[in-house]
Amino acid sequence: MGKLTLKIDDLSAEERLDLLERLWDSLSERPDDVPLTAAHREELDRRLEELERDGPCGIPWDEVVRQIRERGP
């Protein structure tokens, strides 16, 4: 298979965003292929430990939607 040549500057903003989304999706299909730095690994471990210790935090989705609807247009 030949090499694909793509002129990014010739793409519209919408086309570049679509390309970016496709690239991101392709990376998420095989996460083990994406290298992590030691700092990233440490941060992920820290967050996982925090989640296991404190449980999930944040606002449930239905509460987020309710708050948005209360604000109005």
Topology (elements, then pairings):
Blueprint: H1 13-28, H2 38-54, H3 61-71
What does this structure look like?
By secondary structure, this protein is mainly α. The chain has one domain (10-71). 60% of the residues lie in helices and 0% in strands. The protein is built from 3 helices and no strands. The termini are far apart. The mean pLDDT is 91.
Spans of at least 5 consecutive residues with low confidence: none
* Structural classification: mainly alpha
Characterize the largest beta sheet: strand count, sense, and whether it forms a barrel.
none
Mean pLDDT: 91
- Rg, alpha carbons: 20 Å
State the separation between the terminal residues, measured CA to CA: 52 Å
Q: Could you say which overall geometry the principal axes of the C-alpha atoms support?
A: flat
The count of strands amounts to: 0
Helical fraction equals 55-70%
Number of helices: 3
Written as H for each helix and E for each strand, in order along the chain, the element string is HHH
Give a short synopsis of this structure.
With 73 residues, the chain is mainly α. The chain is built from 3 helices and no strands.
